[in-house]
Amino acid sequence: MTRRLSIIVVEKDRDRALMIVDGLREAGDHQVLVIADELGLARRISESNPDLVLIDAGNPSRDAIEELTLASAPMQRPVAMFVDESDGALTQAAIEAGVSAYVVAGLSANRIKPVIDAAIARFHLMQKMRVELAETRRALEERKVIDRAKGIVMRAKGIGEDEAYALMRKAAMDQGKKLAEVAQALVTAAELLK
Amino acid sequence: MTVALRLGFVPLVDAAPLIVAEAMGFAEEEGLALDLVAAPSWSTLRDLLAVGQVAAAQMLAPVPVALALGLGGTARFEVLSVLNLNGNAVGVSTAVAARMQGHDFMLSDARAAGLALLEAAGQGLRIGVPFAFSMHNELVRYWLEGLGHGLPKGLEIVTVPPPLMADALAAGEIDAFCVGEPRGSVAVERGAGVLLLPTSAIWAAAPEKVLAVREGWAEADPALAGRLIRAIWRAGRWLGREANLTVAAEVLATRLGVSAELVERGLTGRLLIASDGAERLVPGFLRFDDGAAGFPWRSQAAWIGARLARRHGLDATQAQTAAAAVFRSDLYRLHLGLAGADLPAASAKVEGSLVQPTPVASSRGKLILPPDQFYDAQVFDPGLAG
Question: Are B129 and B194 part of one and the same domain?
Answer without folding.
Answer: yes
